[in-house]
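ok so for the tutorial part 2 we go from a plain amino acid sequence to predicted structure tokens. step 1 is just haveing the sequence, like this:
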Amino acid sequence: MDIKVFAALMADICSHSLVSPGRPLKWTIIANPVAGGFTIRSRWKKHHRILLDYKQKALGLNPLRADSGPSNTARELDQSNGKGGALLGAYGMLLTRGPGDGMKITRALIDEAGSERSGTGSAPFYLVITAGGDGTSLEVLSVLHNADPAARANFAVLRLPMGTGNDGADAPELDAALELLIRPVKIERQRSLHLITATAGKGPFLAFNILSVGLDAFVTHMTNKMKGRLPGDSYKLWVDIASLLYDRIYKVGPMDVRALDEKGNEVKAFHEDVLLLAVGASGHRTYGSHKMILPDDRNVCALKQMSLFRKVALKDLFSTGSHIDKPEAIPFSANRVEFSGHYPILAQMDGETVLLQKEDFPAAIELSEPNIPILKLLSR
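step 2 — the prediction. this is what the tokens look like for a chain of 380 residues:
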């Protein structure tokens, strides 16, 4: 894989993009070079073919935007040292080297946008493209979530599926994501999720796809812990192992759950031994490499504790979403889900985990107002 080839092809596509017509377009591609979409040879070959195809589509469909180009931040923070020719920053690409780099780059872009707004002429519009896994997009979106609303008004994010799971990407495949660059689009605001605990200084934690507690958070935790040590799809492996180990490591006990709508009205309340509680930024959400935990319009699903035999029997149903109709499932819609238990339990936020202790209860998972600017195709 040649990362410069990816950068050059993306720059060609962006320079013919239809995002924010009428304003100068400044793009920045924040890429994790060790993400599976780059390092797994079969995936990279597929992505390379798609990029070549979409470069030709972009050139054929849309004129060159003379007012478009890489952000100043991409040029100034570039550390590619010109390996193999031109600097990656000249194409608008910056590589992440470790945790926190995506946040650093996004903060610099917000500063750049602020200085441009104070100048003369039409202020540029900033397109941030993440090319990595859910961790890369989580860092970028967290900074945008906390930014001043006036700054967010000049930004949009496009999350390419270049990781291993890609559940937080804007499309499951690269070609569908690139359609958002070459077709007419609008800017929509997406909600985020907050995990709030009773312990001062612990949280709130942010997620932008699914925030959950219980069995699946344990799977995520062990996948992260063993990442790089196990070949192939270790998430799938840990799903199988977790069915056997989870109850021996974490006590599954009664949990009080209370759900509220946007007006604060109670829509659901129950006291159950909860194996899993998942809340999405909306319905129709997946995690764990496209496991359909929220397969319909409802954005919450709880699963009651069950026998090992029953866990094994239901495990494969998550691929199709048919678990939602089983008696162990409690699906519903809510704006805020409050929960309290008596035993430590893991929570996961788009692949990052935290251990909740008894003193952290009552805790809550709450939807924000729509605040993350993403691209959506205009209806035809």
